Amino acid sequence: MTNTSTFPTAVTSARFKSIRLGNVDIFYREAGDPSRPAILLLHGFPASSYMYRNLINDLAANYYVVAPDYPGFGHSSSPAPDQFTYTFDYLAGLMEQFMDAIGLQQVSLYMQDYGGPIGFRIASKRPQQIQALLVQNANAYLEGLAPQVQQARQLMEAGDLTAIRSLVQHMLSFDDIKSQYLLEAAHPEKISPDAWTMDHYFLSRPGYLEIQTILFANYYTNFKQYDSWHAYFRQYQPPALIIWGKNDRIFLTPGAEAFLRDLPNASLHILDAGHFLLEEEHGTVATLIHDFLTQQLP
């Protein structure tokens, strides 16, 4: 897609690095000058930091942009479940360690899908470090849950691991991942097949079905956190940019609008795109981020 950003973009590619935290190596992409305002990009499921490849380039001329892979995703280590705790609480804690290790003191959080429950945990625990919330199809309200997510929630709460494993196996299939990109897109001809091919490659490796089943089963803990996240929103009123793909079949548009209850000053933008809207609209999103942060940051 043609970059529609109205401000300078980086001409150099991202830098690819890895850092050891405990028993895992965390792979991450970074670009831009570390002295500039920092943006931490937290990816969703079934993606990795690869989903941010275009946005990183769009923002790197003006920001220090960092996008890690969680354990069990992308190029980061994927220890067996008996050697690593695959929960959202633990991943959020590990991302806090990652922030400290690379020196992110003040940061804006860009969160998509799984990045939401990880990022909201970090923000509510470290409110003084958060300069802004950049929320893209990352749900925090019951209104945003599509019927199939409500059904999955019932399986999680029932602890039906057999049914959850079957569901995750379907979600990790090549055809289902591909459909998430194409069926929700306003312009499917603009979606590179590299996106779903990359996701499927990473998650089809031996042992990954077990890892993703355990983490997906833990997703029910996020619903229990909603009230505490809302309390954080109301108390601290962090500057918030809410960007949503209206064709998302997982997290519905009412979930985007619900943020305004607790963050009435948030900037809300509904785009004609899907769950992975950066594949079509990364330039538009980069411009929205730049315009927003220019007004919000000191």
TrEMBL record:
Q: Tell me which domain of life the UniProt entry assigns to the organism this sequence originates from.
A: Bacteria
Signal sequence extent = none
Q: Does the keyword Transcription apply?
A: no
Q: Which InterPro entries match?
A: AB_hydrolase_1, AB_hydrolase_fold, Epox_hydrolase-like, Haloalkane_dehalogenase
* Domain AB hydrolase-1, residue spans: 37-281
Pfam families linked: Abhydrolase_1 (PF00561)
Which parts form a coiled-coil structure per UniProt? none
**UniProt cross-references to Gene3D superfamilies, sorted A to Z:** alpha/beta hydrolase
Which residue windows are transmembrane per the record? none
One GO MF annotation is: hydrolase activity
Instruction: For this UniProt record, give its keywords in alphabetical order, as a comma-separated list.
Output: Hydrolase
Q: What is this protein called?
A: Alpha/beta hydrolase
Organism (species): Chitinophaga nivalis
